[in-house]
Design goal:
This protein is an alpha/beta fold. The chain contains 5 helices and 5 strands, in the order βαβαβαβαβα. It has helices spanning about 10-20, 35-40, 60-70, 85-95, 105-120, and strands at about 5-10, 30, 45-55, 75-80, 100. A 5-stranded parallel sheet has the order 2-1-3-4-5, with helices on both faces.
Amino acid sequence: MNPYLLLVDSEPAELQRMEQTLISNKWHTVAVDSGRAALELRVGPFVKAAVISTDLADMKGYELIPRLRQAFPGIEFVMTTSDYSEQTERDARKAGILSYLAKPLDYRLLRRVVDKAMGRST
């Protein structure tokens, strides 16, 4: 079974653009718009990496990471942000992310980082 890449962002246009950019025949993508929706996923242990925005409607993205790590052991995380504060970056890095990317996203860079994350986790 192909692994899953989880995309979590409260902005529908951002989710759609990420999904289009990150389509692959090597993995499935699943996109949700909240931390709660991410935690309710029923895809078993097959989520290998996640791209999560720091600013979700229901929680901070870095607060979601430990909960997802518990549900999906071995998962890799990429954090995206439009909050350029040093504290937000520290909180995200403390949660154990692979990469921290500023919005507006460079989608070529995002693709390279996700390819790396999916390769590391499998």
